[in-house]
Amino acid sequence: MPRTSWIRRTLAALAAAVLLPLGAAGCASGHHGGGGISPSPVGKVLDGTDDTGRHLREVDKKDAPQVAVEVTPDPAGGWDVRLTFRHFRCSPPGTGATAVGGRGLVHLFVDGRRIARLRSHGYHLPAGLVPHGTHHVTARLYADDGTVWAVHGKPVQSTADITVSDPAPAGPSAGTTTPAART
Prior knowledge:
This protein has one helix at 2-26, and strands at 44-49, 55-58, 66-73, 79-86, 89-90, 103-110, 113-118, 122-125, 133-142, 148-151, 154-155, 157-164, 173-174, 176-177. It has 183 residues and is mainly β. The strands form three sheets. Strands 5, 6, 7, 9, 12 and 14 form a six-stranded mixed sheet that branches. The longest helix has 25 residues, at 2-26. The relative contact order is 0.19.
């Protein structure tokens, strides 16, 4: 009987020595080989990307984050951009690169060019970024891992058109949302 116990303990120790390193490798830092996007329990990362090359993170429309953008002239010059969110909140600086439902940051674009990454509800748009003419100001929602929140394969975003004329800018402009961001 003592010999059987010794054999069982030895086999158990050998099995643990072999299996523990394999289990630890699977629970590493959350990154996986290839440098891609780490899996997350939130939504599904699609093969498609937005126009900046970021992968789309598909979520159900019912719980999808939403954004609305309003741009108003600032009496001191430039434009004030105000964002309102539904099912979304901005993550604080230093947040880890993991997608968490309804959290992340906003990329602000003027005529398709990114001008700011925001973690707040507002931004002052300098007059120099919007010369004479009509311009499109777009707010797009991103998860903290850099993926774009999406519904039905389209980024969750809102766009406001502003027209700059001389000598004073036009009145406020409320954004129009893409089908992905509508309620």
